[in-house]
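Support request, please re-run this one:
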Amino acid sequence: MYLKTGGYPLIIYEYMIKEKRKSLDDKWYEEFTEIILEDIKYTNLRKEVAQELLQYMREINQMSPIVDLDKLENYIRNKIHFSKRELKRFRIGDYIEYFVNNFTMVKATEISAIRKYKTQNEAIRRIKLFVTDPFIFNAIYTKGSQNHFEMITRMLRDNFYIGKITEHTVCSHFLRLPNPILYYHIRDNSGEIDCICYYNRKYHVIEVKYTDNSKEIQAAASKLLSYLEDLNIKSRPIIVSKNILRFEKEYMIIPVYVFLLLF
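Re-run finished. Output below.
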């Protein structure tokens, strides 16, 4: 249910009590995509630019959390008519910070861009953006659709979609900690660490594998441990699975529903 309704009491009430778990009115999805832009009028930012950022995430990125900032900037420049003065002042980071500051998204930085490690990635202007609530994720992804609820119900039968929304939800849950710093890591475009949360002087390493296939999880664990060795991070990582709960010597496997209760 959480992946459908998120954690908003109003939405949970509408779904559980008023609709008796049958459906949700389309108006809630459309209203939420406007609500997250409501405070932009108090800034010097343009609403249509923020809307195009969401459009990019939906149409171009297909809600993948990895965002190439150069591609995003070029996309917006082609969509929005800027005056010369506006173009000179335009910074995509200001719009990302808007969504971070209103708790719609949380940003993670490539960790090798912060410190020098054995395998230094090329200086790519790339970040991860995790949407902080499943309902906001679904509202952004299905904006402009008819019968959002049926579409989301259908997509949630697809493990690929569930894996995507689970990565957003799991990684953004670190916001429940006071002042966490989020990183991620991609090694030579051959593999990645979904999220590395630096909190209380420790690295908490998370890899989301929404599966119960033990061989897939073991393969992911092997890669994960080698990446951490490259990064010189001594941490016992957590692999977030579908249902498996197991504690190995070098890593832990925790079901997603258990992990989300921890943060």
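The CA atoms of residues 77 and 98 lie 18 Å apart. The chain has a mean pLDDT of 92.
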